[in-house]
Write a structure and sequence with these properties.
By secondary structure, this protein is α/β, with parallel strands linked by helices. The protein has one domain: Rossmann fold, CATH 3.40.50. It has nine helices and seven strands; from the N terminus they run βαβαβαβαβααβαααβ.
Amino acid sequence: MESVLLVTGGSRGIGAATALLAARKGYAVAVNYSANSLAADEVVRQIRAAGGTAITVQADVADEAQVLAMFEKVDAKLGRLTALVNNAGVVDSTQRVEEQSLARWRRMFEINVYGTLLCAREAVRRMSARHGGSGGAIVNLSSVAAVLGAPGQYVDYAAAKGAVDVFTVGLAREVAAEGIRVNAVRPGIIDTEIHASGGQPGRAQRLAPQIPMQRPGTAQEIASAIVWLLSEDASYTTGALLDVNGGR
């Protein structure tokens, strides 16, 4: 049976690198995107060109109706889900907490937390032995910010990723006897486009001197950790929060 993987936020950065690597390992991949269909199409084109199976699925993970429709499309096009990477996430511009708005916090938690919970819930409904599933693996994307707190930058983002960490541990224990493993990867400073979306396109290189390894990580380095956690090589690993941060 072919392993079926959904990668949220799979059109760029860590998500795209994960989709491409997983496809090379034999997964059929659903590449989720919110708005950038061209980027998602290009990831799928690369997978298919290498002989793999892939589709695009549009959905804003903060919208329950869109998430339900996305999972139904994956069911219909690829079959029963066996792996999920909750990668979709956002940062915002650098602000102190007293400068931040409720609207900013709502967006931060709706995408980074509620989106992760919604997709995990739908994955469990398909993977769990309780629901007739054959098991599976979920990897949530957290951040070193959950440990460091991101003071003076985006404490709200750090708080959202802290919620992802606790959710990962709790869900892992809840479904461990049902054939599902749940883990999280906590990247450090990674050289992707997410910094530009927060108004700091040069952030990764600028912060390099603060990293013990003296360089930002790459999307491929994070993808390697994610795909390992999805694989049978990590068969006894669940509830783990894996730091991939250059020593930061």
